[in-house]
Amino acid sequence: MTIQFSDLGLSQPVMQALDMQGYKVPTPIQAQAIPAVLEGRDLLGIAQTGTGKTAAFMLPSIDNLRKADNQIPFKSCRMLVLAPTRELAGQIAQSAKDYGALAGLKVHSIVGGTSVNKDRNKLHRGCDILVATPGRLLDLIDQKAFNLSGLEILVLDEADQMLDLGFIHALRRIRDLAPADRQTLFFSATMPKQIKELVSGYCHDPVQVSVTPESTPAERIEQFLFMVQQDEKQALLELILSERHPVPGEFERVLIFTRTKHGADRVVKKLGQVGIPANAIHGNKSQPQRQRALDEFKRAKTPILVATDVAARGIDIPGVSHVINYELPNVPEQYVHRIGRTARAGADGVAIAFCAEDERAYLKDINKQTDASFERLPLPENFRAVVEGVGPTKPAPKQQRQRVKPKPRGASADMRSGDKPKGNRGGGHGGQGGRGRGGPKRRHGGGKPGGQGQGGGNRRQRGQRRGGAQSQG
Ligand code: AMP
Q: Most-buried pick from 26, 33, 147, 282 (CB within 10 A)?
């Protein structure tokens, strides 16, 4: 029998907010986590973005905050969510506002790269829910502009990513500053040794909920592979985006991954030279630049975004039809994160990997660890000749350099000139003509399958805080 939201014990205002969001049934992680969190249990969620984990921790926490009905603490918050990136923090804060729309809770977010004075003023009177990146939070704590004395619930989201970003000391400090009797909800996509150590320092006998990532690539994302030399990648990308070398699926928004910030900038620059507008998003960009790039991508004003792993982590934008791995990630889990940016909210998606000779080992690891199944695509005819001079790496004629127009889902969008006839164009430099341009196979299905919830017992109601030193679970 399918579990319904009404089976989970959520309050009426939260149920109404879910209705407004159009959520019909809980995802597996929500079905498993919500009852345990409502009971006040600590939680260890092994899940990545796209599984519905934000609602899994936010919905029951909103209810717990409402039930406890404590006053907003001065220069503090009742619930703190730590997130690795500014973008993810922004998204979580928005979810808190959406899900808590009828609960009357005050939500703030603070992230690096913005005015610290504004944050200080914002937090003076405290708030119910604060979403923060660890560095900015500690800045404000060090300035005595904020403290954690009022904390009832602490959430760590994407903890593995926070470690990758060097936040380990920050996370240890925050743990030591937080009241011992808080509830902790800890999320990580992977469980390396360092994360296990952190969990035992943060959580008390946590209920463990795991949603295995393999289902994400396997179910609705079709995965393709080009074996291509490193110096041919840019030309191949240009042929694909200008639809001179057709690939499966209809372009709506294309997210391209590089391994480095410099690589992302280079791809954007070269695409610009041939009249294909694109933005880059990575750690060297200012916060307003990153936000602008995301907004333009969201509105499909500039539907090509080139990103590094860290910057794209947690991006949740519907309508990403294609993820192109311009460079393969050297960590297999990153591959799953990357391609999980497509096929959001029940849609289909296409993932295309460019693999050069020196990336074969990465490909092997991805195959082994994620059960990825790639269909290999042929390179364009006479491709080497194209790379070596003629064609796509040269700037397109001026009249072709138009802005890409937003395309409704279902319309094939030529990423360069927007108004060419649709369909399978052979010809030009790249026409293979062999592959149909039909969209990815439609495979309907609901949420992703979940894993097993573990643990039980040890009921602890919120409001009755755990006394004494925090025990290690
Ligand atoms: P998350 O894993 O929290 O980043 O969520 C991924 C996406 O799934 C977000 O766009 C949510 O709005 C959406 N979502 C979360 N829970 C549900 C649900 N029960 N039904 C439909 N969509 C959902």
A: 33
